[in-house]
Recover the amino acids of this structure.
């Protein structure tokens, strides 16, 4: 498949050296001499990940290709969530690091140099002249790398304090494209950043993989001593953000389980250690609390430590109405004082005359009444999914080829995958114009021809302009299998403007899905000022599907909004428009 851009081939006088090859050679050269002793005996995974994330930020500021930026961030993410210490995996040989997902030769050599010498010359080279405060500016919603560089070069703004002072003094109006609305957005972004920094909660997508690593490590360390072990709390309820990680264990040897827990390789420091509970801070900064109870009490313990508080209060009241008290330890008969031990969580709910309630529903929003009537809804699980209708490849801002993505989707048991790379309006994502989209289609056709029992759909995620028009003309949209409309710009519009803008797009006959409707980024960007009730009504009329985006930083629509759309507009589901008209 030819690239969109082609050039006449000429015979080079000397073989060109790619930037990646030069990077590898520089790293090898720096490590050629006998290395001095490391400056520290042990690097934590979080420290290595933070360094790689910072390199990605620097490269983004310097205008490097998106693929190089993504490479460092992918490696950082993998190392941050490793179950073993990365230095133990290294064991003196950089080749061992290649076993870590996302760590290629160049990055492996840089980490090797860090472990051997205590410094990373590549990082020192690219960061030498960059003020450290610029990285904090990148975390402000609505401020990208190009804006940060303009603020630095033109106004000598190098941190959040000088940015806020510059905004309030009106200095930013000296720059083209900045006005009163820009100033308002920046001040709101600074406020959002400060609120985020004051919060200790992390995204579910970060907490869940790490909790799984800790649970697996503790299970391996304890062996048969642990009859049951499970993460509880808001993590088990799959809330969008998590505070501390709670782990509950059923064991007759609590002292040995506690000892194994505080000596796990993920532990950075021990906050507390007792006979049946302990608390640690992990290398990534997350707090993990452990509670150990005897196996006969597992049912009530797991229910209690899962919560939510409001859900548990309702359950305790129902127990009281039946002459019982309910705690993490047991049920007790209020008349006789007799203790009732339950070893299974399902028995707790049956004792109270209701069906077992999945943890994700335990938020005191009507699930208890539904359980009493034995009318709980079926929750969608991964095994229920048949395909994925939003994905981005290397054609825009994705990190993998079309074939790699199709193979990964097929390996997960999916039957189809829609390639929905961004349209050209989202320049930061290397969006596609119609000519590049047709080149992508040719590659999709080639890959489809090699696949069995699987199909790649030709889709696109089209930017909805501020006036509600689409980023590509209708005659182009009509030729795609699937069209997603989305908003990434002008998110500060008023409620009336944003609602009118989106409704105009929903009424476009070629828009099949409205992606991540509110545009929120959890803890970073507030939802758009959008009249969701009006949105639900128009989506019902036009048959446009509203996306529930599973990216941990979005989860948009939220569970509350999805439930409202379902209960308030239930007949919408009977007349959905289907994109199959063009398949």
């Amino acid at each position: 498949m030819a690239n969109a851009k082609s050039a006449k081939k000429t015979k080079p006088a000397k073989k060109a050296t790619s930037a990646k090859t030069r990077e590898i050679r520089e790293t090898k050269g720096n490590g050629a001499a006998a290395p001095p002793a490391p400056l520290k005996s042990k690097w934590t995974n979080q420290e290595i990940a933070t360094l790689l994330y910072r390199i990605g930020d620097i490269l983004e500021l310097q205008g490097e290709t998106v693929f190089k930026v993504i490479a460092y961030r992918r490696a950082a993410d993998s190392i941050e969530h490793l179950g073993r210490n990365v230095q133990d995996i290294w064991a003196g040989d950089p080749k061992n690091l290649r076993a870590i997902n996302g760590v290629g030769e160049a990055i492996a050599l840089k980490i090797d140099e860090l472990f051997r010498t205590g410094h990373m010359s590549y990082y020192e080279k690219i960061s030498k002249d960059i003020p450290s405060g610029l990285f904090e500016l990148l975390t402000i919603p609505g401020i990208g790398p190009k804006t940060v560089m303009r603020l630095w070069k033109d106004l000598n703004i190098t941190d959040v304090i000088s940015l806020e002072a510059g905004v309030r003094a009106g200095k930013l109006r000296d720059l083209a494209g900045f006005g009163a609305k820009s100033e308002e957005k920046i001040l709101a972004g600074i406020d959002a950043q400060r609120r985020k920094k004051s919060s200790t909660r992390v995204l579910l997508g970060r907490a869940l993989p790490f909790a799984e690593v800790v649970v697996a490590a503790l299970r391996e360390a304890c062996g048969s001593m642990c009859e049951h072990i499970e993460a509880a709390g808001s993590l088990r309820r799959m809330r969008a953000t998590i505070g501390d990680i709670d782990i509950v264990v059923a064991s007759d040897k609590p002292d040995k389980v506690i000892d194994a827990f505080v000596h796990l390789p993920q532990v950075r420091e021990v906050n507390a250690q007792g006979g049946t509970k302990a608390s640690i801070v992990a290398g990534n900064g997350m707090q993990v609390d452990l509670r150990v109870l005897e196996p006969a009490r597992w049912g009530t313990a797991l229910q209690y430590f899962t919560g939510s508080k409001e859900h548990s209060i309702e359950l305790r009241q129902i127990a009281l109405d039946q002459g019982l008290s309910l705690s993490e330890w047991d049920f007790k008969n209020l008349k006789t004082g007799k203790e009732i031990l339950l070893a299974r969580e399902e028995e707790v709910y049956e004792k109270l005359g209701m069906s077992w309630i999945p943890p994700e529903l335990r938020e005191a929003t009507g699930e208890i009444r539904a359980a009493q009537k034995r009318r709980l809804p079926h929750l969608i699980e991964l095994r229920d999914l048949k395909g994925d209708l939003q994905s981005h490849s290397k054609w825009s801002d994705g990190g993998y080829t079309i074939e790699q993505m199709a193979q990964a989707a097929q390996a997960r048991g999916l039957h189809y995958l829609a390639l929905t790379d961004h349209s050209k309006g989202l320049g930061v994502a290397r969006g596609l114009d119609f000519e590049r989209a047709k080149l992508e289609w040719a590659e999709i056709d080639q890959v489809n021809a090699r696949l069995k029992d699987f199909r790649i759909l030709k889709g696109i995620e089209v930017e909805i302009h501020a006036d509600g028009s689409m980023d590509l003309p209708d005659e182009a949209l009509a030729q795609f299998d699937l069209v997603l409309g989305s908003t990434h710009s002008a998110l500060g519009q008023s409620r009336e403007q944003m609602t009118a803008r989106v409704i105009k797009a929903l009424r476009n006959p070629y828009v099949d899905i409205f992606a991540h409707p509110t545009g929120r980024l959890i803890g970073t960007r507030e939802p758009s000022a959008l009249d969701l009730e009006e949105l639900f009504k128009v989506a019902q009329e036009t048959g446009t599907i509203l996306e529930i985006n599973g990216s941990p930083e979005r989860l948009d629509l939220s569970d509350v909004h999805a439930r409202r759309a379902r209960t308030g507009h239930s007949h919408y589901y009977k007349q959905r428009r289907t994109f199959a008209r063009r398949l």
User: Anything to note?
Assistant: The longest helix spans residues 180-198. The radius of gyration is 27 Å.
